[in-house]
Structure formats: structure tokens, C-alpha cells
Design brief:
The protein has about 650 residues and is α/β, with parallel strands linked by helices. It has 25 helices and 25 strands. It binds cytidine-5'-diphosphate and magnesium ion.
Amino acid sequence: MRKDLHRLRQGQLSQKQIAASVELRKRRSRARLDLDLSLPEQLPLSAHAAEISDLLVKHAVIIIAGETGSGKTTQIPKLCLQLGLGEGGLIGHTQPRRLAARTVSQRIAQEVGCELGRQVGYAIRFSDQVGDDSLIKVMTDGILLTEIRRDRFLDQYDVIIIDEAHERSLNIDFLLGYLKRLLVKRRDLKVIVTSATIDVDRFSKFFDNAPVVEVGGRTYPVQTNYVEASGDIIGDVGDALEVIEGSKSNASLQARDVLIFFSGEREIFEAAKTLRQRFSERFQILPLYARLSFAEQRKIFEPSSSKRRVILATNVAETSITVPNIGFVIDPGFARINRYSYRSKLQRLPIEPVSQASANQRKGRCGRVAPGVCFRLYDEVDFLSRPEFTDPEIRRVNLASVVLQMQAFKLGDINTFPFIDPPEPAAVKDAMLLLLELQALSGTKLTAHGQAMARMPIDPRLARMLIEAHKQGAVSEITILVSALAVQDPRERPMNKRQLADQAHATFSHSRSDFITLLNLWSWIEEQRQTLTRNRMQRALAKRFINPQRVREWREVHRQLRLICKDLGYTDTPKAASYQAIHECILAGSLSLVATHDERGSYLGARGLKLRIFPGSNLSQTTAKWIVAGEIAETSRVYARNVAQVKPAWIEQHSMRI
Ligand code: CDP
Ligand code: MG
């Protein structure tokens, strides 16, 4: 509509178009009349409605902070409607997660009394439920970012609400930076940033001292029980459930459900299976994660069973989704966090202890309606030794992937983009060089490779290997290898049993390539998995000095990669890939990790770097002229890990294309 105004001034609109535009505005104005815009009195946000309204009239940006459950997400869009926003353009409302975008829009639609997709709609990838008379559009932050490519001024919006800004994902940082710039050009746009009560001043300063409204929030005391961990998370969780069931002290608590935090979907599947065997008579076990189907999701929000419920959730239940009636939280204390290792120059998805802020959020989930009880499966010393906050994503990822995404979203030059936490110029330069090497950029423009890489949530080097795999017909082999490189090596070499371990691992070894060795290991694991029970499998792994937890992670990342490949249309080929094909794929992502034999036991890498082959490698005694490494890491000395013998012709073929 704003675009129409612009064209109207230029005399480019016909009578008919003008009439249609006026009609649309009228219709949206009428659509608003049908809605119930009252704010529930008991929510902390409602007490600040007048203050927020005043500030919104006077300021372009406001920051609203408050505890989870205070009404930020569900009530602010209604408040905007009360002020007449949403008629000239939409009220855009972003969520960090798909599942949240859907449940939030459902909830708002239900509160204002409309069908979902009418006045209140939502847009997530592959599903757009926004209609002509929609006033509120709830979407993932990724969707709004992709809209920027086509709608540079975000003309279709009156106001943009960036919800959960404290999460500080790359997407959120991108949006905040872009909006900061856009506000100079669009004087009429309103921006509302909401956050848990963490780091609120950062946001305010970033937006030229925008006013902050602290809505507070009612929380009840939560008793914290630190439980000693045994190393078996599912077992410990089960024991905590027994304690919860056995405690007969408080009748009102007896009626409340249990929320348990896991680090990922696979962990949830496994836990669900085991816990169902043990507790199916006593509890209803329900998984909750981002890619849940509609029907499964409904079970969480519309309780149907008479049994007490146990919800197994990922981080999604930490702040963005509120599960009703939670009296107990069990927190093993881990999350899967992507992190770039400057040491190994690879971005990985390690499972890490969560920050104190995160642990406290988790705990708070059982103190929303009455006092609750939280079991932490770690001790207090551990808790106190953890970082206070989770680092923002831009501090954790490979900058090369930041550049890729900025290019894909057309956000402009990384060097001048307004970031809350701007990256170091030297690191940006390295990132650009790497992208040139990977043929993701040509000059400053994204190539076709670069576009594909921007869509893969993995390290750009590994993404480049996958692209090559598609070309070479080696997708099934390279997904296995790339996921192996993205997690920690599952092979263990305990100090006191090093020789035994090396002997056990030798069963899988290939004399010229650690990558083929990894493929052999994978096949062996798959065979065992299909024939052995869980317990016997664990024993078989232990006997060969293979860490089952890391195998699980390997398989999980592999599963995620397969999904990505499916999205990209990368399919398996019936024929196994040749040695050359496999290693050309590795080379495509590891050109700067090529080394040539120097003198006994030592190799010479790029920029004259002297290195040795890691002692656990089958090639540690090799004198092969040329090798490529999956990783070159500096520990006590410079070691190349996962190496393979390659031919100079293969290297040349790839370097020529730079
Ligand atoms: O965003 P914030 O955490 O501040 O709160 P909210 O999500 O707007 O939730 C406000 C209230 O609505 C909470 O007390 C929730 O219990 C309730 N709510 C709900 O019952 N069902 C939903 N799907 C969403 C919110
Ligand atoms: Mg919220």
C-alpha cells in the first residue's frame, strides 16, 4: 500500500488501482473491528500498556524486557492494533523458531477471536498462511530476512516486532542491523524489540538510546536440587522421575507435569523409547522439538491423557514456547551449540554445558503459575563454573558463513554493516580469502556454489565438499565423511592402552587414506547396529575403543546432512565412488590443507607451515609426496589429522579454478 502511495504521487496508478488500494485499507480497518483486543489484566505487560502506547507514538524504536510468560509475545501485537497500526501495513512479528511462529500465531488468533490465516496469519518455510485481510503476520526471522531481498524498504509493514532478541542468533543480529539502517529511510516504521531481562542496555544503546520498558513478571520460588550425574543421562532422568513420582508432600504439585531438556531430536527419540519402557504405566511421555508435526504438537497444548505428562523438549521450550502446567523441570544441562574452532579451523556442533542464564531460564519454566521444583543433573560447583551468558552466535561461527549469508540475504558489505558485536577486520579478511579459495565468491559476488553453501548450516569448507560430491556422484560417501569431520573423532586412544586401541582400530584402516578408514568404520558400525541389541552394541563399541556418545553425534549430524541434501536435490548414486572421486571432494574444501613431504616425518603445508601427521593416523609413517588433511590443528605442535595420499594432478585441477 505504501508502494501504491509512492506510485500515486508519481501519477502511475490508475483510477481502478487507487480504488482497490482504498478498498483494501477499508477492509483491513473493518477486519480490525471484529477483534477482541483486550489485554488480560493478570499479565504483567498489561499494566504497562499505556506507557508502551505513549512511547510507541513518540519513538521509532522501543525495547520491551520481561520474564518469560509476562505477555510480550502474545499481547504486544494486540497493543499495536489498538493503536491503529496494522491498517496501512502489516504488523510483522518474528520468532527464532518455526514451531514458535506457528503456536504464537495460533494463540493470538484464538485470543482475538479469528480463524488462523485471516486477521492473524503466519509464514514459515513451505507454509504461508497470510491472507488479504491479515493484520498480524507471525513469521520466522529467516522469512523476514528473505523478504528483504525483494522488498528493500519492507514496505508491507507498519511495525516490526523482533521477539526473543536476547537469543542473539545471526538472523536476529542481521535484522537488528538492517532495521537500524532502514529507520533512517523509513521515518514512519516502528520497531519493537523484546527480550528476556538480559543485556537490555545493549539493545537500547544500539538503537540510539531507545527507551526501555521493563514489564517485570511474576515468578514463584523454585526449589533447586543438584543431583550427582552418573554419566548416563537417560538413567539419571529416570531416577529423577521416580523421585518426583514418589514425593507425596504437596498435593497441588502432584497434579503438575514434568519438563525435561535434551540437546537434540535424536537424544529425545532415544530417551522417549527408554522412558516409555520404564514409565508408560505412570506417565505420558511426549516429545517436543522444532520439526514436530501439527498433530503431535497439539498433544502438548491440549492435554488429553489422564496420566501425568512428561515433556521431552529441546531448547525450544527454554523461552520461546510455554508448555502449560509445568511443576517440575529436569535439566541435564546440555545443549547442541554450533561453534567455530579457531584451533582446528572448523565449525562444529558440539554438545556443550549450557550457560548459567540458560540453566536459570530452564529452571524458571516450572515457577510460572506456582512454586516448582528443578532437578539439575550436575552439581553446584559445575553450575557456578559455567559462563554467565551464552555467547551471541556471531562470536561462535566461522565468519565465512556469516559473509555467505549476508550475501545471500543481500545485506551488503560485512565491513560496514551495523552489528551489535562487529567482527574483527582481520578475521573478516581471512573469511573472504577462504570464500575465494572455495569458489563461493567471485570478486564480491556470490557464485552458484556460494548460494548453495549459504543454504547449508555447516562449515563452508565442509559445504564445499558436499557440492563437489554432488558433481562427482559421491554424496553418500561424503555425507559420512563431512559429518565425521563435524564431530569429535569417535575413536579413543586412552593414554595407558594406546597400543591396544591402535590395534583395535587397525581393523578398519586403509593404508593410504584416513577418510576411507572412516568409511570402513561407518560400515562396520551400521552392520553392528542392524544385528546387535543396544547393550551388545555398546559392548562391541567399547571393545574396539569407540565412544558410543560420539558415534551417536556422528549419526545425528549425518542425519541432518541427509535432510539438507534432500532439500538441495543431492541424491545417492548406485555405484560406490572411486578413491579419486572421494578425495577430489575432500580437496575441493581443503585446498589450503594440502602438504608435501619435506624430510623424515615432517611435511610442509601452505605458507611454509611445518607439520606432522597425527600419531593416530594410519599414515603417520608415510612418506607419500602429497597429502591432503581434513584438519590442521595447532596443539603442542602442528598436527594434520585425517590425512590421505593424493595425486598432484587432482590438486592442480582444483587450484586452477581459483
Ligand atoms: O512472551 P512472554 O514470554 O512474555 O509471554 P507470552 O508468550 O505472551 O505468554 C503470556 C501468557 O499467555 C502466559 O502466561 C502463557 O501461559 C499464556 N499462553 C498460553 O497459555 N498458551 C500459549 N500458546 C501462549 C501463551
Ligand atoms: Mg515470548
